Amino acid sequence: MWLLGFSTNNRRSLWIIGAILLVILLTVILKKWVVYLESQATKCSKREGDHGKQHRGIRSSKSSLCGPGVIRTYALEELRTATREFKIRIGVGGTSLVYLAELGDGRFGAVKRVMEERGWSKKMFLDEVSVLLRISHPNLVGLLGFRLEKGEQLLLLEYVPNKSLFEKMHTYHGQLSGILTWSNRLSIALDIARALDYLHSQADPPIIHRDVKSSNILLIDNDHAKLADFGLCKLGHHTSNGSQTPTTVKGSFGYVDTCYPNTGLLSPKSDVYSFGVLLLELITGLKSIQGSETIAGWMTLKSWLL
Question: Who contacts 217 (Cβ-Cβ below 8 Å, separation ≥6)?
Fold first, then answer.
């Protein structure tokens, strides 16, 4: 059998076909991203006006559970009631557990319960709240409220119903509901590209996420996604002119920019590298870790063997 002028009976030809298809897909993604950025530039002034209105909507209140667009502090008892005493767990992170919260009127939220015993601190919690208060974008999970009281560090976040991209692609139950099509994967990749463009180019100050990975991408449906978990974010772009102070290396193995651990120097390119790993994950259907090797390293090794 022949495909793109190559015989599919030859293993080397299969790798060449795969590389061609990868280039085609990346080209389509980049073209759509450029079109999106151009359209965003024409709407810049309107967005600034909208952001001003959103920031004016951030206030403190002691009324019932908040409505859309309002961020406030909560009484601990309110969040205990909304989560039914933290009964329904919908997510697990390295330093936190996430519970379903019923907000009333058929609306739901997600309460992230940060665990100090897992290495999280009050400062890190406040840093995450500070970042969440600064951002507003359709492809970023939004903050609805928070509480810091009696050893409890709680964030009430926007609820995204269809779990994570990791669960959809790499678990048995996720795949039972159907495999993502190429159109689905392209649409998800574009949504996360838009989220990163906002963080790097439009947020003030700019924000480096530092933990872009499939388990931090929550699916609205098979075509739309939001980037979540801002606990490792870093405010401000760092330069490469030698004046930058190295930072403690943070992130997830398999997604961390390979230069970052060696230098400790962080930049938006670190997120772009992680996004590249995510693209490989979407294209190949493989996890970011292959045995003791990362998917990026594994693909590099395969290319050298050819």
Answer: 164, 165, 166, 188, 192, 225, 226, 227, 228, 278
DSSP 8-state assignment for residue 288: S
3-class DSSP state for residue 97? strand
Instruction: Give the angle subtended at the CA of 138 by the CAs of 137 and 140, to the nearest 5°.
Output: 65
The span from the CA of 185 to the CA of 196, in Å, is 17
pLDDT tens, residue by residue, 160-211 = 999 999 999 999 999 998 999 999 999 999 999 999 999 999 998 999 999 9
What residue ranges in the chain does DSSP mark as E strands?
A: 2-3, 6-7, 72-73, 89-92, 96-104, 107-114, 143-149, 152-158, 207-208, 217-219, 225-227, 234-235, 289-290, 293-294
Mean pLDDT across the chain? 79
Instruction: List the domains of the chain with CATH numbers.
Output: 25-40+162-305 (1.10.510.10), 57-158 (3.30.200.20)
**Cβ–Cβ < 8 Å for 50, 202:** no
User: For the purposes of burial, counting CB atoms within 10 Å of the CB of 43, is it exposed (0-12), middle (13-18) or buried (19 or more)?
Assistant: exposed
Residue in 191, 197, 211, 257 annotated catalytic: 211
Q: What is the pLDDT of residue 217?
A: 97
Q: Which residues have a Cβ under 8 Å from the Cβ of 220 and sit 6 or more positions away? A: 160, 161, 162, 226
**Distance separating alpha carbons of residues 116 and 96, to the nearest angstrom:** 9
Question: Has 211 been annotated as catalytic?
Answer: yes
Tell me the two tokens of residue 14.
């299969």
In contact, 8 and 21? CB cutoff 8 Å: no
Q: Is 36 exposed, middle or buried (0-12, 13-18, 19+ CB in 10 A)?
A: middle
For the segment 123-142, what is each residue's pLDDT rounded down to a tens digit? Answer: 888 889 999 999 999 999 99
ω before 68 within 30° of 0 (cis)? Answer: no
Contact 177, 235 (CB under 8 A): no
